[in-house]
Design goal:
The chain contains eight helices and no strands. The N and C termini lie far apart (96 Å). The radius of gyration is 44 Å and the shape is elongated. Helix 1 crosses helix 2 and helix 2 crosses helix 3. It has 163 residues and is mainly alpha-helical. The chain has a domain of 86 residues. The mean pLDDT is 77.
Amino acid sequence: MTDTPSPDPAAARLWLETRGADRTRWPKTGRAAAAAAIAASPALRALEAEAARLDAALVAWAAPRPPSAADREALARILQRAEAAVDAAPAGRPAPSRFRPRPVWLAAGAAAAGLAMIVLLARPEPRSQPAPAAAAATAPAAPEEAEAFGLLHTLTVEEELSL
């Protein structure tokens, strides 16, 4: 799609649809050819009239409007309340603020509480029964190993008495 001069009605239609009826928005190099195509075609003249109506509606919509009487009254009430609030404020005292600085210890306490929650929630749960693979790895495999296993994991008399 180029903006070259052409008496082609399709180009004139494209410019009317994309650039509107105001010919100052059209490229200078093709204005005369597009105007000739519009003058020669009743359909393009109707499209130009429709584009002109749309242009006028868009200009009217975008035009700034003066405030209504109700808007002016509401603005006057707001300004009056603001002036009254300024006059009622004690002298030498800063205006109230929604932001109040908090002590540093409050932030440190919140961080410590968050860290404690992470530690508590990250601890693994104790298992009530060993997993089958772990049980097979700790169980004796042969009778001679069973005796060695019992010697290693059985308390002596002294160990039992010290309990």
